[in-house]
Amino acid sequence: MIAELGLAALWLAAALAALQLVSGALGLTERGAVLGGAVRPVAVVQGGLALLAFACLIYVFSVTDLSVKLVALNSHSMKPLVFKIAGAWGNHEGSMLLWVTVMGLGGAFVALVEKRLPERTMLATLAGQAFVSLGFYAFLLLASNPFERLSPVPMEGNGLNPLLQDLGLAFHPPTLYLGYVGLSIAFSFAIGALVTREVGPAFAKAMRPWVLGAWIFLTVGITAGSYWAYYELGWGGWWFWDPVENASLMPWLAATALLHSCGVLAARNALRAWTIMLGVVAFSMSMIGTFLVRSGILTSVHAFAVDPQRGTFILALLAIYIGGALVLFGLRAATVTEGERFAFVSREGALVVNNVMLSAILGIVLFGTLYPLFAEAMGAKVSVGPPYFNPMSALFAVPMLVVLMVGPLLRWRRDKFGRVGRGLVIPAMLVVAGGIGVLVLGGVALLPWIGLALSVGLGWASLLPLKGRNLRRTPLPIWGMVVAHFGIAVALFGMSSESAFSVEKLVAVRMGEVTQVGPWGVKLGTVEPVAGPNWTAMEARLLVRYGIDGKVTRMLPQSRSFWTPPQQTSESALLTRWNGQLYAVLGGEAPKVDGEKQSRWQLRLWWKPFAPLIWIGGLLIALGGLLALLGRVAADVRRIVAKDKIAYRREKQGR
Amino acid sequence: MSDLPAKAPRWAIWLPLALFLGFVALVIVGLYRPADRNVASALVGKSMPQFDLPAALPGRPGLDSKVLANGKPHLVNVFASWCIPCRVEAPQLGALAKAGVPIEGISVRDTTENLQGFLQTNGDPFQRIGADDDGKVQLALGSSGVPETYVVDGKGTIVYQHIGEIRPEHLGLLLEKLKEAGQ
Questions:
Q1: Among A299, A64, A63, A295, which Cα is nearest to A158's?
Q2: Where in this chain does the record put each Cytochrome c-type biogenesis protein CcmF C-terminal domain (chain A) (predicted)?
Q3: DSSP at A162
Q4: Which of B2, B10, B11, B84 to probe by mutation at the A interface, max A CB count within 10 Å?
């Protein structure tokens, strides 16, 4: 019954989305104004019903109800409970349901708490949100019903992709989705503003917290995803420029640009049309990314639903929403005037550079991701990888990072470099010193060299906005900016150090044999079989020692075999020290050479100096966003409370 | 110093839409390209790896790669009783068997009991069934999931790989590939 309840809730939610669209649209007209009042409550109930449907799906997965086709295809009674639950969204249908749930909840949340936006823009925004939701409801209900029953009921389920059986990955998609779909709110805001032509500081201030929220989730999601790929795939890398990764990076780049242009619009009433454009682009990138991954049109190591028919459906949705929004933009952008002017050397100017560079990187990533498709249409098969992406994105990232050192110090509207110059002497010296230092070490490629030098100066420069301030009275958004920019320096240092100084070793060793990798001595103890709930594995006991007289520590990498469905995975072992990470992967048994009695095992070892800083930096960036969000929300609450107080006093006096 | 921003030209406003339409056109070409998008096994065009699997069922022959080089085209179906798409494709395999196609089975990580149950419910189109209990042959074939089906010509060379279940609409293509393999 629960599956039917979920399906009913889903249909009802879809119907309410239609109602929300119609009453929102009619509410904008004079004759239908009375309908406008229905929009907010309908949005709230719609969100609640979507959540109910999602809860039903989680329930049927948690009890492994095999009469539901989706459960039978993606779950197994022997799986640990947490992975049964994660199975609910670890597949195409479930993740689409998660998508509409987040969209519905986002709309409900906006309807409940958003007080800044003019009422008409609010109606148009919620109608826009409902319009987008409606397409995805249609997609779910007509093309990929998650609650479809199966007859006859199978004895056992098909399991879950073992690669996905990992805590990191179980919670990575929902986080990323909150970011992806959270951007739908910015999209709807942009639509709302285009419809009512109300673009200005008030609009930017209203939109900013929502963009920030989505951006924080995206940042955390990407960071977590990168760490997952690093330890789970056993390849020792943390970014592969895989289409699926690019699909998450592109909305992040657009959202980062949007966040900064929102700041310009809020503070200075400039970059109006551009901000609206980015609002449209950011969510479009979420949708395009999802489409590329889901349609099977690009091959990827972790694309999971290859189905051209569904691809066609999503493509139609894309054409309607993105195409429609861009047409609306084309028609209305000219009436949204550009707003206040400013000199090139100014805070706005620096933020424009940031926006242009981020957009350029976005273009490069998009082009590289689509290029194989383009080449295939021309009859050639190519793959585009790090040799294209790394230098091309660095070409724009490096100037952007240089501007990042100066930008936060500049004043709005008009400034002189001379004024901020003195403060930048130390960071500039740090860059040069860092550059020379790395050069002395030698053997470092160009990009990591630039990265190392820049990261040191950027780390210092990012703290400069705090100079001369009373730290306890510094507003939270300033703290947020400082922490996020410092996080970029930290992540950059980690990335550059990882690619400059990593040591890799692939060996076949006998038990008791010692291998040296970087400063580590690694001794293979034993290799023994172990059994888990739905897998068996060979587990190696490695005894490792840092330097000559370090403490001996144990590491236990495994080579796992799952049988539902049959698949082999490597469970790498990681040992984290303050100055880096030792990474060990157990391969197979090496073939015996003639006359050999004892078997040898393949081991892959990496010493990655300061690699954890990559993800620590990512989390700092997200933390910066969180601080800024808390600061903005707190200010909003204070403002509303003060307004209520004034209104109350006036009312009293009036009596 | 000049004030920014200069007003964007009118056509620039429509540029994003033009780019997006280009994207849509490209993707439509990609979606409807007739070429199969499956990751083709590196083994197509090469000979079947050597293996000798024990019988999966008592009283029935096991599968040996030499059988596949007996001069006649074969269909080799990798399947398992625990695999749902395998049930979906069973009627199609039955039809092929009825049409006289020799079908050999490789049963992956299965038990005799479950396998017998599966064949009783879904029909038994197989001439021989080899038991690949640890999935080694499956891996050697470059196959990552079940079901998968290979068309092998009379010399033991793999001429075609079909990933996923065989649906009614695939029958024509498979028969054609078998016919080509027989020439």
A1: A64
A2: 315-632
A3: G
A4: B84
> Which candidate in B2, B10, B13 is best for mutational testing of the A interface (most A CBs within 10 A)?
B13
User: Is 90 exceeded by the pLDDT of residue A582?
Assistant: yes
Look at A281 and B16 and tell me if their CB atoms are within 8 Å.
yes
What are the helix (H) ranges across A269-318? 272-294, 308-318
What pLDDT band is residue A376 in, cutting at 50, 70 and 90?
A: confident
Yes or no, beta carbons of B31 and A308 under 8 Å apart: yes
Q: Which residues from A are below 8 Å from B26, CB to CB? A: 370, 373-374, 377
User: Shortest CB distance from A373 goes to which of B26, B39, B108?
Assistant: B26
Q: Are A268 and A413 in contact (CB under 8 A)?
A: yes
Residue located via tokens 């098909």: A158
Element (H, E) at B79: strand B74-79
Q: What's the CA dihedral at A113, A481, A257, A201 to 10 degrees?
A: 50
Complex-level ipTM: 0.81
Please check the confidence at residue A618 and state whether its pLDDT lies above 90.
yes
Give the tens place of pLDDT for each residue, B110-152: 878 888 888 988 889 999 999 887 767 876 776 656 788 889 8
Least-confidence region, from A157-166, A307-316, A609-618, B91-100: A157-166
Chain B interface with A: residues with Cβ < 8 Å: 1-5, 7-8, 10, 13-14, 16-17, 20-21, 23-24, 26-33, 37, 39, 82-84, 87, 108-109, 135, 138, 144-146
Give me A542's structure tokens: 């490695």
**Nearest CB to B4: which of A296, A299, A352?**
A352
Is this prediction's pTM over 0.90? no
Sign of the Cα pseudo-torsion (B169, B172, B177, B182, in order): positive
Nearest CA-CA partner of B53 in B155, B157, B126, B122: B126
Measured between alpha carbons, how far is A466 from A476 in angstroms, rounded to an integer? 11
CA distance B129 to chain A (A): 19
CB contact under 8 A, B26 and A564: no
The domains found in chain B, sorted by start residue, are 46-182 (3.40.30.10)
Chain B residues closer than 8 Å to A247 by CB: none
Upper half-sphere CA count for residue B85 (Cβ side, 13 Å): 18
Mutation target for A interface from B82, B107, B165: give the one with most A CBs within 10 A: B82
Give dist(CA A371, CA A376) in Å, integer: 8
User: Distances in Å between the alpha carbon of A176 and those of A102, A120, A290, A399, A573?
Assistant: 11, 31, 11, 28, 26
Total residue count of chain A as it appears in this document: 655
The set of residues, in sequence order, having a beta carbon less than 8 Å from that of A161 and lying 6+ positions away, is: A90, A304, A565, A567
The closest CB to that of B37, out of A273, A306, A322, belongs to: A306
Residue A115: how many other CB atoms lie within 10 Å: 11
Tell me the average pLDDT of chain A: 86
Using a CB-CB cut-off of 8 Å, the residues of chain B touching A345 are: 1
As a whole number of angstroms, the distance between CA B127 and CA B56 comes to 12
What is the model's pLDDT at position A434?
A: 85
**A522 contacts A505 by C-beta, under 8 angstroms:** no
Are the beta carbons of A110 and A63 closer than 8 angstroms? no
